[in-house]
Amino acid sequence: MTMTAMTPAQGLRMPPDGPRLFAAPNPSLAAHFATYGAIPDVTPAQLLEQVHRSGLTGRGGAGFPTATKLAAVSGKAIVVANGAEGEPASRKDVELLRRAPHLVLDGVEVAARIIGAEQAYVYLRPEVIPVVQQALAERTGGLRITVEAAAEGFVSGQETAVVSRLNSGPALPRFSRYRIFQRGVGGKATLVQNVETLAHLALIARYGGLWFTTAGTADSTGTFLTTVGSSVWEVNHGMTLRQLLTSATGQPAEEWQAVLVGGYHGTWLPLPAALDAPLSREGLELYGTRLGAGVLIPLPSTACGLEFTASIAGYLAAQSAKQCGPCQFGLPELARNLHALAEGRGGTEVIRQTAGLVEGRGACHHPDGTTRMIRSALKVFADDVRLHQHGRCLARIAEPYGGAR
Amino acid sequence: MSRPLIIDWTACEGRGLCADLLPELIGQDKWGYPQSRSGRTVLVPPELERPARKAVHLCPRLALRLEADAKTRVTG
Ligand code: SF4
Ligand code: SF4
């Protein structure tokens, strides 16, 4: 590998046809430049204008407009690339960093250029640190980029938890009178962006905001990464659930009774009723949900939605940082009551009451995300709730041999 | 103009002193943590500002903060 093959003088390549983030044949800098070319030398204001035009939104879960976030930070700011991916059902950030580390690092540099930052952190799951370190060793450039290992845990990727960790504190959500874009790492204004968002930013810097909108829908522009079961896909916004589920799982859509959209903090959608829902903001709004970080968990018709929901709730209760009383005591109670429900004991009213006691009463959105998932389960699996109260279960009826499990 | 009383949930230990000082606005949930009597946020009307300030100062965990008003919560 020679350096001359990678100098910016190579100029701009045509945007890739088909997959955008997964267009390079391997993670090397040479392949990266051969696929995407260099980033043109334009001013921070021009870059921000293109991001604005692109309609890019955050891909870590909250879906906040990236241009607005970039514009909120100023001064001697810090950029943090968030690859903590605490959601156990999500693999897309790890996959992206393995396959296109330079796209993410480009995005860090673009974000730094826009907000005038001289220092950046990449906060990563341990398994991708080697590939990112190798990528960093291949690059030259003025920006100081420090690699940090992300802590384990569902809430470790929450922005305030990331900042706390980078400030040598515990990787737990923090309560502060300031927002992190005002005071974050080292007390400086801080921009935390999901790694996928940064990768898209790297492409917008090359091909422009208008190009970005040539994929996706009017309100959900571009492509997004999704984890379906255990595989990761880059797809256009607007694709229907049916298309994605059938091509990602290789099974007919009729195999599924429901799908959890948005991960463990997401919303259950009934199938086949929602099969034609387009995967976009507007398309999913009709079903009261959002893509979040792009996690889809299809539930086979042979599984019990209530049991599965109870086990997720148990996991989420264990992941409470146990800093805030209502979350610490309420989440385990919710999980217990859901297990009871799945076993045919107890009803739904007590679950709804406890849900009401934890919502909005924590330092982070963990309680709210948990109750969102639970409330949607009570709705989508309502028939099962009734059957369970008579000692029966839809999943058992659907078993091919009608047998016990 | 009502002022929001913000609770730092990571600090609060639910001993209920604030509920004693501001019974009009704050009750306690079944675990003992302060619970707004009117929905999510505790909104303090001018006539209750005095006891609200007292709660802020006496909270053993420094978990309470009285905001200027609903709009100035996030600046910048
Ligand atoms: S709400 Fe729960 S998860 Fe979030 S900081 Fe408080 S205790 Fe931790
Ligand atoms: S006085 Fe402070 S610690 Fe006690 S319940 Fe109220 S907010 Fe919590």
UniProtKB/TrEMBL annotation, chain A:
Q: Which UniProt keywords apply?
A: 4Fe-4S, Flavoprotein, FMN, Iron, Iron-sulfur, Metal-binding
SMART domains per the UniProt record, alphabetical: NADH_4Fe-4S
Q: List the protein's name.
A: NADH-ubiquinone oxidoreductase 51kDa subunit iron-sulphur binding domain-containing protein
**InterPro entries for the chain:** ComplexI_51kDa_subunit, Nuo51_FMN-bd, Nuo51_FMN-bd_sf, Nuop51_4Fe4S-bd, Nuop51_4Fe4S-bd_sf
What family is this?
A: Belongs to the complex I 51 kDa subunit family.
Please list the GO terms describing molecular function: 4 iron, 4 sulfur cluster binding; metal ion binding; NADH dehydrogenase activity
Query: Is Iron tagged as a keyword?
Result: yes
| Biological processes, Gene Ontology terms | cellular respiration
Is Repressor included in the keywords of this UniProt record? no
Q: Which Pfam families match?
A: Complex1_51K, NADH_4Fe-4S
What Gene3D superfamilies does its record include? 3.10.20.600, NADH-ubiquinone oxidoreductase 51kDa subunit (3.40.50.11540), NADH-ubiquinone oxidoreductase 51kDa subunit, iron-sulphur binding domain (1.20.1440.230)
Q: Which organism is it from?
A: Kineosporia babensis
Q: What is the lineage of its organism?
A: Bacteria, Bacillati, Actinomycetota, Actinomycetes, Kineosporiales
UniProtKB/TrEMBL annotation, chain B:
Domain of life where this protein originates: Bacteria
Which Pfam families does this one have?
A: Fer4_15
> Can you name this protein?
Ferredoxin
